[in-house]
Amino acid sequence: MRIALVQHPPRLLDRAATLTLACTLVAEAAAGGAELVVFSEVFVPGYPTWIWRLRPGADMALADQLHARLLANAVDLSADDLAPLCAAAREHAVTVVCGIDERDGRYSRSTLYNAAVVIGPDGALLHRHRKLMPTNPERMVWGFGDGSTLRVVDTSVGRLGVLICWENYMPLARYAMYAQGVEIYVALSYDCGERWLASMQHIGREGGCWVLASGWACRAADLPDDLPGKAAMYPDPAEWINSGDAVVVAPGGRIAAGPLHQEFGILYADLDPALVGIARRSLDVAGHYARPDVFQLHVNGEVQRPVDFHHG
C-alpha cells in the first residue's frame, strides 16, 4: 500500500485557495500511486504561526485582526466547507487525512478547534478529531477537544487513528490509540526537529504501528503579503519558520522514508500491513504486555456540551 505525506505551505488565511491547492495535491499524490494522502496540521486555512511572535498582552489589536481573518476562513463542517476536498477524494478514490481550523457551527459559532478529518475514498467524512490540549499560546486560539473524538476508525487502508502535535507526547492519548488496535498512526504536527523525529520512532517501537508524521513547512516568503504585522514579525523572507520534517516510521521504530527537511514536496512510502502484527509479537503494550491487573486507563468518551435544551 502506497501512502503520501504532503509537505507544502497552504494559502494562509484563504480557505478557498487552500482547498483548491489541496485538491491539486491530492490529484498529484493519486497519480503517484497513493491510496492514502496526508496533509499537515491545520492545513486549511493554515497554522496561526504568528502566535509565537506576538507579545503576550501587548499586541491585542494585531491579534484581533489576525484572529478575525482566521475565523472568517475556518472550516465549518456543518456548512459543508470541505466539499471540494471530499469531491477530490471521491474522484481519485483515495483516503485523505487533513488538519483544519474548525469553526464550531453549533454552539456559539465563534470558537475554533484544531481538528483533523479523515475522508474516505467515496468522499464521506469518516472521522473528525479535535485536539485535546492546545499548546502554550495556542490556547488563545483554539478550544479544547473531548474524549468523544479519541477514536481509531476502519478505513480502506487499515485501522487509522490521528493525534495532533503535542498530543503525541501524551502517553495516555497514545495508549488510547494502541488499545483500539491502531495500525496506521497519523501524527499531524507543527513540531519538527531531532527530538520530534526521535519521538516518532519511539511511537513506532512502543505501539508496533506505522507512524505517518506530516510536518508543517513554511518560509516567511510563503506568508501572504497582506498578513497584518508581517514585516515586523518576519523581516527575512528567506527564513524557514518551520522545517517540516515529514517522516514515515515502520512498526518497530525504523525510519522508512524521510525526513523531508526544509523542502516542499510529497513524501511517498510503501506500507506492509503485516509488519504490525509481527512487531507486536514480543511487545503489545495494550495486549499481552498490558498488565490490566496493575494498570487501567479510563477514557471519558462522552461528547461535552455547554448547554442542553429541553423543550416541553
Write the layout of secondary structure elements.
Layout (H helix, E strand, L loop, with lengths): L1 E6 L7 H17 L4 E3 L21 H14 L9 H10 L2 E9 L8 E8 L5 E6 L21 E4 L2 E7 L6 H9 L4 E6 L4 H14 L2 E6 L1 E3 L10 H4 L6 E10 L5 E7 L3 E6 L3 H6 L33
Helix pairs in contact: 1-3
CATH superfamily (homologous) name: Carbon-nitrogen hydrolase
Note the total helix count: 7
For the largest beta-sheet, the strand count, sense and barrel status come to: 7 strands, mixed
* Shape by Cα distribution: globular
Query: Would you tell me which CATH topology applies?
Result: Nitrilase/N-carbamoyl-D-aminoacid amidohydrolase
Gross CATH architecture: 4-Layer Sandwich
**Mean pLDDT reading:** 96
Cα(first) to Cα(last) distance is 54 Å
Which consecutive residue ranges, at least 5 long each, have pLDDT under 50? none
Output the helix-strand order.
EHEHHEEEEEHEHEEHEEEH
Alpha carbon gyration radius? 19 Å
Structural class: alpha/beta
Regarding CATH, which class? Alpha Beta
How many strand elements? 13
Fraction in helix: 10-25%
